[in-house]
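2024-03-11 09:14:02 INFO queue: dequeued item Glycosyltransferase, putative, len=261
2024-03-11 09:14:02 INFO validating residues
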Amino acid sequence: MKKLYLTVLYKIKYSNSQTLRSFSELRFGDNKNNFFVVWDNSPESETKIQELKEFLNTENVEYLHTPDNTALSKVYNSCLEKYSDFDFLMIFDQDSKIIRKDFDFYLEKTISENPDVNIFLPQVYSKNKLYSPGKFWIFKGWHYKRLAAGIHKDNLYTAIMSGTGVRIPFLKKNKITFNEELSLYGIDTCFFSDVRKIDSRFYVLDERLEHDLSENHLSKEDRKKHTRLYLEGTFIMNKKSLFKTLIVYLYELYLKLHGKI
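2024-03-11 09:14:37 INFO prediction written
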């Protein structure tokens, strides 16, 4: 099984990325079927590819530096197009700490034992709260209190992209890509909405990721900016439905009346 591990960096050196440190410490590079793409969106970079290969303990590494901060939707689609002959894609951002020491072996075993499942998701926690997987409807998201490891089915499920695993042949067969109208907010929600139309099953991995969620550190003004960008993404996701667009518009009015945007 050929697995692609994609990690996106921004304004951080690879050796300071919690995600890449996890790959290195857990020796993911020992599995010769693994290939690593490190996509660096930082304005500047001094990364040397040979040093990165030594850090990850493998020659199976591609390093890309795009100082224009390429939209994540385009990053993901670019990798899917270039590595379309791979079996499986794992997407990570730079801040995810992998706890399970045999994660790579466990992941491969779980994928093989569940050939009819296309989406594999870790349990992502921040400050001891389960953030992903979750649920989403039109504009509103909410959290599961807990989810047991194994197969689940939910027509409203969603997840954050970091830690998401997906079978590449499934995406190719159903012509599912990431919506490039979205550059940051809403990419994950829109992606899972498209996936659910084909298959609403997902597998919750027996793995807890500790994740540093950026919205936990926002100031009041930054939170308003975050909400405006979130709304823009929500309008894009729902624009094909007049009813859903109206619901989002009413939600926007509510936020304006309460000074939240």
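2024-03-11 09:14:37 INFO annotate: The helical segments are 18-25, 49-56, 72-82, 103-113, 168-173, 187-198, 220-238, 242-257.
2024-03-11 09:14:38 INFO item closed
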